[in-house]
Amino acid sequence: MHVEQDPPIKSTATSLDVIETVHEMGGATLPEVVERFEKPRSTVHDHLKTLTEAGYLVKDDRTFRVSVRFLNLGGRARAESQFFQVAEGEVRQLASDTGEHANLMIEENGRGIFLYKVKGSRSVNLDTYEGMEVDLHTTAMGKSIMAWMSESKRDEIIDEHGLQPVTNRTITDRAKLEEELEAIRERGYAVDNEERVEGVRCVAAPIVTDDRVVGAVSVSAPKSRMNGERFEETIPSEVLSTANIIEVNLQHA
User: Fold this and answer.
1) Out of 24, 99, 123, 217, which could bridge 119 as a Cys pair, Cβ 3.0 to 4.6 Å?
2) Do residues 32 and 25 lie in contact, with contact meaning Cβ atoms separated by under 8 Å?
3) Does the pLDDT at position 66 exceed 80?
4) Predicted model pTM
C-alpha cells in the first residue's frame, strides 16, 4: 500500500527566512522584504502579519523589526545550560583579572555562538554581543573549537560554510587552516591576529570534557595592549588556567 509522505512545511521555512531577512537588514518595510523574496506581496505580508501577532516581530510605523522575544528564548536556554552555569563565574573572573573582554563560545550548526561576554575595566567597545554568530575560522575561539573537533565534522562545516574572509588577515586557504589547527593542538591555545576585527587580537583555549570539545573561552584586546610577553605568555596562561578550571568543574558538576 502506498503511503503518502507529508509535504515539507515550506511556510515555516519562509517565516524563518523572513525573520532572518528583517534581522540582517536591521529592520525592513514590507516592500523591502518583498524585494528579497520571489513570492507575492500578499504572501510576504501574511508572514509578517503572523510573526508580528505572535510576538516575534514588532512594527514601528511601517518598519518591521525583530522583537526581544528571542532574548527571552535564548536567555532561558542559556540559563538552563550546565556549561554556562559552570563557566559564568570563571569568565567574569577572567575579565576582572585581565581588564579586557572575556568571552565564552559554543558551536551550533557549524557556527560559533557568543554565549557570554564580560567587559573588563579597560576593555574597548567591540561589535560582539551575546548570541552573535560568526564563522568558526575567523576567531581564536572558533579555531580552538575546530582544532579539537573530529576531522569529519570539521570537513562538513568547511564544505557547508566555506572559508570566507572578514579582514585581509582571515585564513581562507584550507591547507593553511589545517596547519594552523595543528599548531593550536600543539600549544594548547589559539590566537586571532586581527582575523575578524582589524586592530584587535584574541587568545582562546578550548574547553574539553570526556574527549569532546564543548566550547572555548577567550580574552580580546586592542593589539596595542595585546603584544609581546602579554600576548605570547601572560594572557595565554590566564586563558588556559580558566579553561582548565571550567573543565574540572564540569567533570564534577
Assistant:
1) 123
2) yes
3) yes
4) 0.85
